[in-house]
Specification:
single chain; mainly alpha; two-stranded antiparallel ribbon; 466 residues; 17 helices
Length: 466
């Protein structure tokens, strides 16, 4: 499954990837650009659907990379924080045409969804109080709740294979639900536990470990195709680009302005999104709703529904949060202008690191793919992510299914609790229907979200007639 990377420094002439077979095709840049546009427009269905789409187009139809190279790239991208499908597109683009290829592939994976979410965000901000739109988002929220539960079950089945992983997941849930401990602390603690566990000789900590290939040279990695000076220059340039808009906003409007707060907050998220967007949604939702008051819990659910039903990675929900946060606190700008800048700031600090991880780390991390300490750390972190997603499911469930939510003091802790008499029966019925559609009938995520919106309208019409 491992593969040697093609030379990166000289891309003026095209050559087949290292593992290419004679019948493989090496595209020119214009040809690749058209395909990356197509992938960006069709990238619905979350990471699983997006990865399958790229495999069908890039490996089976176009034969631009081999099966081994594609899986090798996928394994690397799954080690990184951030949206693995977008990073996989960036990686393959980099393999084919160097930095310009990686930029083209990664940007075109983002731009269609970003444009759609920006347009929908403006519509939402202007018309969210309309009864029709409220009815649509009632159904979408119910569908999103089920989607989160499905993600919990899917990831849990993959990682919770022994008692150690189950204990880590439970501990992470209790830490964030009862103790309200920081997400970063939970992630790093879980990683440290994984390293210490495998160091003690306990193989149960390395659930996600990969078997080394027969080719020992492939397992240990190849010599990086660039000098340390080049890598240092890439790192400095990447960090400078990452920080530039935050610094400009701070000098322009002050360090306490919403633009700066959003830039710093989403930069922090960009380095801890191991396990996909669901891993940080609970933390992001609680911070955005309770700490910064950029939006309400219901609006957070609406934004997740928009991200689930548009092309591009699910982490694009951050764009919606950044938009509404700047729309609510725009001074000294007009709300529409501030929202546009807030949206752009959020996208920038979310995705610039994704490109940096690929362009900087690819030649080096190859040798770490079979490292048992790294595998154990990632296994423990992923188990902790299951607990964090469980907290997200509880948080979403309480806010979707109940109209009134409060907190109760228990042993010095604040416990989230619904007012049971405020149960929203239409939302409950819609959630049950969505669960049947997604979990039983295996209808896709996009159609489940769209169907939820339609049924939300139907529920509102029925309620109006009663």
């Amino acid at each position: 499954m491992a593969s040697k990377l093609p030379p990166r420094e000289n891309t003026s002439h095209r050559q087949l990837p290292t593992h290419a077979t004679p019948d493989m095709h090496s595209p020119n840049f214009a040809e690749a650009l058209k395909v990356w546009c197509k992938i960006g427009l069709l990238s619905f269905g979350g990471p699983a659907g997006q990865i399958a789409l790229m495999h069908r187009i890039l490996v089976e139809e176009k034969r631009w990379v081999s099966e081994a190279q594609y899986l090798h790239a996928l394994n690397y991208c799954m080690l990184l924080p951030g949206p693995e499908a977008q990073q996989l597109a960036t990686y393959v683009g980099w393999l084919l045409h160097g930095v310009r290829g990686g930029l083209a592939a990664g940007l075109l994976f983002i731009i269609p969804g970003a444009a759609v979410i920006l347009a929908l965000s403006y519509i939402y901000a202007a018309y969210q109080d309309m009864p029709l739109l409220s009815a649509v988002f009632l159904g979408i929220k119910a569908a999103v709740l089920v989607i989160v539960v499905e993600a919990l079950l899917r990831i849990g089945k993959r990682i919770l294979k022994n008692g150690i992983m189950q204990i880590i997941a439970l501990a992470a849930f209790l830490a964030i639900f009862l103790g309200d401990l920081p997400f970063l602390l939970i992630v790093f603690t879980a990683g440290a536990i994984g390293v210490l566990g495998v160091r003690s000789g306990d193989t149960r900590f390395a659930v996600l470990s990969s078997q080394a290939p027969e080719d020992e040279a492939a397992a240990t990695g190849t010599k990086p195709a660039r000098s340390l000076a080049t890598s240092a220059a890439i790192a400095i340039a990447g960090v400078a680009l990452w920080a530039a808009p935050i610094i400009i906003a701070a000098l322009w409007l002050g360090s306490e302005h919403t633009f700066v707060q959003e830039g710093l907050f989403f930069s922090k998220l960009a380095v801890v999104t191991f396990g996909g967007a669901y891993a940080v949604l609970a933390y992001m939702a609680q911070q955005a709703v309770e700490t910064y008051a950029w939006l309400t819990a219901g609006e957070m659910l609406d934004g997740l529904g928009l991200a689930e039903s548009t092309p591009g990675p699910l982490i694009m929900v951050t764009q919606f949060v950044g938009f509404l946060g700047a729309y609510r606190y725009p001074a000294p700008l007009a709300p529409g202008t501030a929202a546009l800048i807030g949206s752009a700031m959020t996208i920038w600090v979310t995705f610039v690191p994704c490109f940096l991880w690929i362009f900087l780390g690819a030649p080096y991390v190859e040798r770490l793919r079979y490292n048992r300490y790294l595998s154990a750390a990632l296994s423990a972190i992923t188990a902790a992510v299951v607990g964090v997603i469980l907290n997200l499911a509880v948080w979403f469930g309480v806010h979707v299914l109940f109209k009134e939510v409060t907190t109760l003091p228990v042993a010095g802790l604040e416990i989230l609790a619904p007012q049971w008499t405020s149960l929203d029966l239409p939302a409950l019925v819609l959630a049950i229907i969505a669960a049947i559609a997604l979990l039983r009938l295996h209808i896709g995520v996009v159609w489940t979200v769209i169907g939820g919106g339609v049924l939300g309208i139907a529920a509102a019409e029925i309620a109006a007639l009663m």
